[in-house]
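Support reply, case 0932

Customer input (verbatim):
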Amino acid sequence: LGVWLADRPAAGRRDMAEDAVQQAVERALQKAAEFDPARGTAAGWLHGILAHVLSHAVRSLRKRPAQPPA
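Our regenerated output:
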């Protein structure tokens, strides 16, 4: 999901998507011991982590005041 967002030029926030992917990987490595295959697949678990990181990033963007174009 993050890679897909990073590759969409219309999104205009490649840097944000790349940061989110990096944060998701870091979080997954920190919480690897908590993964339980009985609760779902590793891909689903990683997708959930990335979705959480991305939703937090979007909320943070909405809280920032709009900046005039350069």
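We compared this against your earlier run and they match. Two observations from our side: Helices lie at 2-6, 14-30, 42-63. The chain has a mean pLDDT of 79. Please reopen the case if you see a mismatch on your end.
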